[in-house]
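re: ur question from yesterday

yeah so i grabbed the chain u mentioned. its 97 aa long if i counted rite. heres the sequnce exactly as i have it in my notes:
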Amino acid sequence: MAQTHSRIALELPEQSGAVLQKIAGVFARQVKQRCGAEVAIGGRDGLRIQVVLDPAVPAEGFDLRDAPGVIEVRAADDRGVLYGLGKLLRTSVRGGR
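ran it thru and got these structure tokens back, copy pasting raw so excuse formatting
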């Protein structure tokens, strides 16, 4: 059975620019609309989604990794983060639906 979370902490890299901040805001709004969970950008409470910029990932690519209590989105650039968070939204089970 899928675990549900009412709070999600989205951790961005320290060097996050305006584009990553915008992507994080869109992600937070989409999560709220879809399942009612609150996303705290930069928070530490609840399920953790950690964005990691990794030059080993191909341009515009991403890698999703799941571990207890944390989901890691690894990407080389902003578009990879966008695509990775989008994939996470599309494939996540919505609580109560």
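noticed a couple things. The chain is about 35% helix and 30% strand. also Residues 51 and 73 are 5 Å apart (CA to CA).
anyway ttyl
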